[in-house]
Amino acid sequence: MSTDFGLEEFNVKGRKERIRRYRGYVYEAGAINRSDKMRVKIIDDKVFAKERKKDFEISRISRFRHRTRYFTDSGIIGSKEFVTDNYQRFKHLFHSKHEKKPKPVKGLDGMYSLKRLSEMI
Question: Are residues 14 and 49 in the same domain?
């Protein structure tokens, strides 16, 4: 998946800034009331105001909350010590030939899981 969004040609180089601007565009477009169309605005004013106040940035906590796949695919997720301790408690339930080691979750410093989780969903 690309994070270009057509913004690289406008000299928006940083990935984080491109994502922030794209989110801004999506929220702005979704909050417009289109009386000429069959649909009215899709994004509620309260949701839009909350995101605009955050300047359309995704915090570490928000990013984690939106990734429900992490909870279903990870086996165990948390700090490195938490993952190690709980793997030892429940390793009889895992069907693996090798001892599992906690793997860092990209984009979420200090978070580990039993499986490698990519940012691309």
Answer: yes
